[in-house]
Amino acid sequence: MSTPSFLEKDTFLLGTFTSNCSSGMTITTVPERWDASWAKNLKLARLLDDAGIDFMLPVARWVGNGGETNFHGSVLETITWATGLLAQTENLFVFATVHTAMSHPIVVAKQLATIDHISDSRIGLNIVAGWNKPEYEAFGLDLPDDHETRYAYAQEWFDVIRALWERDGRFDWEGKYFHLKNVHGDPKPQRPLPIFNAAGSQIGREFAVRNADFLFTSALDLSRSKDENAALKEQAAQAGRSVDVLTFSHVICRPTEKEAQDWLQYTARDNVDREALDNTVRLQIAHAESFPHDLLEQLRDSFAIGHGGFQLVGTPEQVADGITALHEAGFGGTTLSFVDYVEEFPYFRDNVLPILEERGIRRPAAVAVAG
After folding, report:
1. 279 falls within a domain
2. What local confidence, expressed as pLDDT, does residue 287 receive?
3. Which terminus of the chain has a smaller tally of CB atoms within 10 A, N or C?
């Protein structure tokens, strides 16, 4: 029996974020920090699959952020990573995060269509229009100064991919950025891939409304998020599309609030990798618009804890309350990160998921029946 489409899910979505990168989302020097090995990622994927978690979302990185830990310096490439995880799981969806400037659309279209067939259509695409100047320089590329150029390139890049997935036979493509002769895409995906796009700027949100099924954005102020989420969904509806909004969260869940706060203090304050934190915030200010720049300096502490994500810190009931608040603010789901995903997720699974199920936000994972 085939896995239901990701686009048909009608529950508050939960996934993990950045487990393919060293240190995950926490800019810390503690020895317990995430090492992003393949063995750890595979163990996590199997835990998530068994628990009924919906998806895993990676970050594509090519250059680390320096510091004592070289934050995000060790990274499993996302298309290869997704293929391996999908071959070892049954229901979990896994996304590939792809930088449009670094990957040719003909190659990406073929890769993802192949993974679609391998995985019973459990692959998704997270499109990154580009912002990290050191990574462009590593590839010998120039980062366009304006968002308009980056998103115009990303639009044509994705238009080529869709054409390869949707058109029969061979065709030519004569655009501004791509000049293709006699191309075709075979095999094609068996059903539409779910598309993610992270955007904070207005032009980025317009790109998401045109192309994505899910806009991925920060949740800094839930009262503001509620209005923004409603406006974005209305904007998409007026364009004849359905776009949901997801955010990202960092989880520190313990039996008592003091234990949770002590872990936060130990990992993200007493042992923060300050050079890596400085470099990370500086890069966001210089080239990205994922966060309001006037708030970034105020968010330094939050960046150390979970890269600016919504903080779910406390007892299981408090963490469940935070997720409920995201749901009430109009988010369709959130990713989760932990200092050590494999060590900490089981406590979240056993103590937070049942509360969310009682509240009707989540449903229990399907129970396998022997025989």
Report:
1. yes
2. 52
3. C
Domain with residue 128: its CATH number is: 3.20.20.30
Note whether 93 and 5 are within 8 A (CB).
no
CA distance 23 to 338: 9
What is the token pair recorded at 306? 């979970």
3-state secondary structure of 304: helix
Cβ-contact 327, 310 below 8 angstroms: no
Pairwise CA distance, residues 28 & 266, whole Å: 9
Q: Is residue 367 part of a domain?
A: no
Cα–Cα nearest to 235, from 258, 217, 212, 254: 212
Give CA 192 to chain center in angstroms. 19
Neighbours of 134 (CB within 10 A): 15
* Structural domain that includes position 62: 11-357
Residue 34's beta-bridge partner residues?
none
Alpha helices in 68-146 (DSSP H): 78-86, 105-119, 133-138
Q: Is residue 299 part of a domain?
A: yes
Cα(298)–Cα(310) distance, rounded to whole angstroms? 14
- Establish if 362 belongs to a structural domain: no
Range 267-274 average pLDDT: 95
The number of domains in the chain is: 1
- Confidence band, pLDDT 50/70/90 cuts, at residue 143: confident
Average pLDDT for residues 40-63, to the nearest whole number?
A: 97
Give the SS3 label for residue 171.
Answer: strand
